[in-house]
Design goal:
heterodimer, A: Cytochrome Bc1 Complex, Chain D, domain 2, B: FAD/NAD(P)-binding domain, FAD/NAD(P)-binding domain, five-stranded parallel beta sheet, four-stranded parallel beta sheet, Cyt_c_1A/1B (chain A), coiled coil (chain A), heme (chain A), transport (chain A)
């Protein structure tokens, strides 16, 4: 009985071993199959991804082509339209060109030159622009766009302005806009004694106005010279007085209590090397209280025409 | 410019030789100008005479301090808007660039007959023309209980330099909620808006560092310079901090006790942490020593700032009794140019033009809140008279006040360059 039982146990054990091994093989095969399937799937996904990249490339190429075609179409349409306009109203063409150029200047909100001309009124006591413009207290502004800062020959700029030019500052819309907003923020010791134009529209307008007097880009129409009305109407004989520089030197000692003798500007504007006529006009404008500053009104109030001429003559020749 | 001046001076010397030979005979060579006091009046006068005479006149400047600390803008240092170093100026350029003989010594007296100035360090300096610009000294016994020996406990800070630093240090060390008392001076005194600008600057410091502290002004004057502007500013920026006791409430009846740090204002005793005593003032002592004063001040003729008591001595600035001009650095600087022209004219025959004077005083009330007052002056037989004037208005916008402050900085640069080169 024990032997039968032992044999039975052995058979059972052997069957279990066979079954176990068979199971082991089966499980291995199953995993291999599964791995093969996954590998196949991975390969599919990779192929699919490659297809997508190809398709994206194709899409980009197609879009570029479409864009080119659209541009060509638009140009063709514009050419047809221009041709039609040229047939019907040829005189309009230069204006249309000018507008196109201004719009091309980069900013859709680019200003109104007519308004800019009015805003420029506050610059005019120092700057001229237009035909025949010359350097006055400030440099003339013909061709200012695209010019290096501090680079206009014959004008004596502040050291800081020259340095900014050497460092690469060039007058374009964005740099002029920043300078006009706050001159001393951009060029800390500029001789331009102007607080700045805070209204962005004023700046756009003034730049649109100035833009007309710059040569680049092409096709800017020749604008009329700016009117140069004097702040005060002075008789020719007043402007013709030749100042006594010795007397001017004495009178100037009073100015030098506040105004820097080296022409620098710290809270109080520089007054050296002004054109004589501008100096005379400015002092008479203070004397008649057209210019607002109370100290200057007081100082100018008691100066005779000869004394103003003497001061102008002295300061025009200071180094 | 230089050629012009040389050519012009050549003519001037020729004229002087013909018309005023006595001057040259008396001075053995080049005419000599001695200037006593190197502040806004004296430094400017010395510089202009040396500069414009281009070597024709020997200029000696006698000034005890080696560094000059301006009194103007010292309030801004107290308020934290200005560095002490920026108040200090050297006499180096006057010596090196203008050839002025700068003598660091005290002038103790003037022998007007011998035309010499005595020095504390011994010896004396001869002059053909003397210019005195000594500034102020304090009237003895003006504030009972206070004299110069008490100026460490109760600083005046009304002459620039160490006193200014002392006062600021005391203000910064005040206990929380402490009391600052100013004993304000009677008219006339140096820098009419000065005490009230100082109040503004002290209030500015205390508002930031010690906001419960109190400021009391005992004032013998009914009214003061730029009063409406200061009072508007104190109300706006330092509401409730500043109390002014005018003469109606005994502000002119003050005794101080420096040992106890108390101020008795018309019988009411205030215990204070800082007491800023600005006593009544008089001309710098040398004027009295030279016998050139009438009362507390030295009378001058506004045509050339020449003493009414000695035709060879010109007196400038705070020390003078000239008429309507305030005692200010600006006034002294303006007067110096007239005197310099007159002295050159007398010694070298250079052209002399009619005197014109002006003054502007800027004051800072708070950050970027500057105000100003000014006038133009011309001499008549009796005095220097105001011919026109202006003052900042209450209610001005912030941009204008800021521009006024920036203008004052420009003026500081301008006048200190005009004084020291």
């Amino acid at each position: 009985m024990a032997n039968t039982s032992g044999l039975f146990m052995s058979v059972l054990g052997g069957a279990a071993l066979v079954l176990g091994v068979a199971y082991g093989w089966t499980a291995r095969d199953y995993r291999i199959a599964e791995l093969d399937a996954l590998t196949e799937r991975l390969a599919q996904v990779e192929r699919s991804n490659a297809d997508l990249a190809d398709k994206a490339e194709q899409a980009t190429a197609l879009e570029a082509r479409l864009s080119t075609l659209e541009t060509e179409l638009a140009t063709a349409l514009q050419a047809v339209e221009d041709a039609q306009q040229a047939e019907t109203a040829p005189a309009v063409v230069p204006e249309a060109d000018a507008e196109t150029v201004l719009a091309d200047a980069g900013d859709p909100s680019f200003g109104d030159p007519a308004k800019g001309e009015q805003v420029f009124g506050q610059c005019r006591s120092c700057h001229q622009v237009g035909q025949g413009a010359t350097d006055r207290i400030g440099p003339h502004l013909n061709g200012i766009f695209g010019r290096r800062a501090g680079a206009h020959a014959d004008y004596r700029y502040s050291e800081n302005m020259q340095m900014m030019g050497s460092d690469g500052l060039t007058w374009e819309i964005d740099t002029l806009d920043a300078y006009l907003e706050n001159p001393k923020a951009l060029v800390s010791r500029t001789r331009m004694n102007f607080a700045g134009l805070k209204d962005p529209q004023d700046r756009s307008d003034i730049l649109a106005y100035l833009r007309q007097f710059s040569a680049s880009p092409q096709n800017i129409p020749e604008a009329a010279p700016t009117a140069q009305p004097r702040e005060v109407d002075l008789a020719p004989e007043v402007l013709a007085i030749v100042g006594d520089t010795d007397y001017g030197e004495y009178l100037a000692s009073e100015c030098k209590t506040c105004h820097q003798q080296d022409g620098s500007d710290k809270g109080i504007p520089a007054i050296t090397q002004w054109p004589t006529e501008d100096f005379v006009v400015a002092m008479h404008a203070y004397k008649r209280q057209i210019r607002p500053h109370p100290v200057m009104q007081m100082m100018a109030a008691r100066l005779s025409d000869e004394e103003i001429a003497a001061l102008a003559a002295y300061f025009a020749q200071t180094e | 410019m230089k050629l012009n001046r040389r050519a012009f001076m050549g003519t001037g010397v020729a004229v002087a030789t013909l018309s005023a030979p006595m001057v040259h005979a008396a001075s053995h060579g080049k005419p000599k100008v001695v200037v006593v006091g190197g502040g806004a009046g004296g430094a400017t006068a010395a510089r202009y005479i040396a500069k414009d005479s281009a070597g024709e006149i020997d200029v000696t400047l006698i000034e005890p301090s080696r560094s000059y600390y301006t009194c103007f803008f010292s309030n801004l240092y107290i308020g934290g808007f200005w560095e002490i170093e920026n108040l200090a100026h050297s006499y180096g350029k006057l010596a090196a660039d203008y050839g002025i003989n700068v003598v660091h010594d005290w002038a103790t007296g003037v022998d007007r007959d011998a035309k010499t100035v005595a020095l504390a360090g011994g010896g004396s300096v001869p002059y053909d023309r003397l210019i005195l610009s000594p500034g102020i000294d304090f009237v003895d016994g003006a504030v009972p209980g206070w004299d110069v020996s008490a100026q460490n406990a109760m600083p005046h800070a009304y002459k620039g330099g160490s006193q200014t630093e002392l006062l600021k240090a005391q203000i910064m060390a005040m206990p929380e909620g402490g009391t600052y008392v100013m004993v304000a001076p009677p008219n006339p005194y140096r820098c009419p808006p000065g005490p009230y600008e100082r109040i503004s600057m002290v209030a500015h410091q205390l508002k930031a560092n010690n906001p419960t502290a109190k400021i009391i002004i005992a004032d013998p004057k009914e009214s003061f310079s730029k009063q409406a502007l200061f009072e508007e500013g104190w109300q706006k920026h330092y509401s409730g901090m500043v109390t002014r006791i005018g003469p109606d409430f005994g502000g002119g009846n003050v005794t101080v006790d420096p040992a106890a740090m108390t101020v008795d204002i018309d019988g009411e005793v205030v215990k204070a942490d800082v007491v800023n005593v600005i006593p009544a003032q008089k001309a710098g002592l040398i004027c009295e020593a030279a016998g050139l004063t009438d009362g507390n001040w030295a009378p001058v003729d506004g045509a050339s700032m020449v003493s009414r008591m000695d035709e060879n001595i010109h007196i400038l600035g705070d020390a003078t009794n000239q008429g309507d001009m305030p005692k200010s650095g600006y006034s002294a600087n303006s007067q110096a140019k007239v005197a310099a022209m007159a002295v050159r004219g007398a010694l070298t025959g250079s052209r002399v033009f009619p005197a014109k004077y002006s003054n502007t005083c800027w004051s800072l009330i708070a950050t970027d809140d500057g105000v100003k007052v000014g006038a133009a002056y011309e001499p008549n037989e009796e005095k220097i008279a105001s011919v026109s004037s202006f003052v900042s208005q209450t209610g001005e916008d912030e941009a204008m006040r800021k521009a006024t402050y920036e203008e004052s900085i420009g003026w500081y640069e301008g006048i200190t360059t005009d004084m020291f080169g």
